[in-house]
Amino acid sequence: MNKPIINEIETKNILTKSNLPVCEYSVNPYVGCTHACKYCYASFMKRFTGHTEQWGTFLDVKYWKEIKNPAKYKGKELFIGSVTDPYNPQEEIYKRTRTLLEELKGSGVKLSISTKSDLILRDLDLIKTFPNTRVSWSINTLDENFRADMDNAVSIERRLAAMKAFYLAGVRTTCFISPIFPGITDIKAIIRQVKSQCNLIWLENLNLRGGYKSVIMNYIQEKYPQLFPLYHEIYDCKDRSYWIALDKELKAYAAEAGLAYVTNDDSMTRNFHSPPVIVNYFYHEQIKKSARKGAARKGESHARTARS
Ligand code: SF4
């Protein structure tokens, strides 16, 4: 991968009131994401931040005034990483996510962090000091070749190891099986792999909209031509029968495996060592519409320095 274009920018408020149903505030210490997932839903952020570069090739590093009175966020739910990965490789240098956590330490805010990295292990001791914390890793395959075709993040093996370390340290963990690629994502195999080291398994189908639809369709045609008719049915003809059948199959599998299969997540209130609950979020479009509205409202501030 070429060296990303890095900008350092100032932003007034790092904590943004969120429309997402899963949290009250969201924080994105960066604009853009150098993990560069081919299917990234957050790539719509380009429209709101004036970036014309290809998604994944730029990163704005945010600086903010130290959060005043962090205690006012006590008991609030804060989601870190709705439109970026807070532990992208540049976090190792800029430490903006770490700075945020240090500013909020002791405030009593409830954290939810989403990542595809194991750099988060660096902050495990700090994260453990927050109450009701949850950390999620996106894992939509156990096939490292497919993973490498889709993103520049760390290997699945490293994500699984990081998840295990957090779980063993007593932090609630989520395996975010998303996006589910029809005919490619082996959901049951992933569940078997993670069920002893997570509290929640979240399922979300692949949506194809905007610029990345052609990227993914071309990829399928080239690498998985046998699946192309299925993708055509789902994404060109809008046939949802694949997802309906998959939902049914997974419900039966969960029952056999003794796992709860629900639409409302109650994993935070369950006993830590209970088996994970599976939440099916197939076609839950509302959450993404809300995220877009929130991002549009948020606005980004001016560039301070630029280097590449
Ligand atoms: S890690 Fe998340 S935010 Fe980053 S490119 Fe991938 S999907 Fe987008």
Describe this structure in words.
By secondary structure, this protein is α/β, with parallel strands linked by helices. 33% of the residues lie in helices and 19% in strands. It has eleven helices and 13 strands. The strands form two sheets. A nine-stranded mixed β-sheet has the order 2-3-6-7-8-9-10-12-11, covered by helices on one side. The relative contact order is 0.15. The site of iron/sulfur cluster has 11 residues, from loops.
Keywords, please?
single chain; 308 residues; alpha/beta; four-stranded mixed β-sheet; 11 helices; 13 strands; rSAM_mob_pairB; metal-binding; Radical SAM mobile pair protein B
How is this structure best summarized?
Keywords: Iron, Iron-sulfur, Metal-binding. With 308 residues, the protein is of the alpha/beta class. The chain is built from eleven helices and 13 strands.
Helix content: 25-40%
Class of secondary structure makeup = alpha/beta
User: What average pLDDT do the residues reach?
Assistant: 89
| Rg on CA atoms, Å | 19 Å
Bound molecules: iron/sulfur cluster
Low-confidence stretches: 286-308
Order of helices and strands: EEEEHEEHHEHEHHEHEHHHEEHE
- The end-to-end span amounts to 13 Å
Number of beta strands: 13
**Within the largest sheet, what's the order of strands?**
2-3-6-7-8-9-10-12-11
> What percentage of the residues does DSSP assign to strands (E)?
15-25%
Protein name: Radical SAM mobile pair protein B
InterPro entries: Elp3/MiaA/NifB-like_rSAM, MJ0683-like, rSAM, rSAM_mob_pairB, rSAM_sf
Domain Radical SAM core: 19-254
Keywords: Iron, Iron-sulfur, Metal-binding
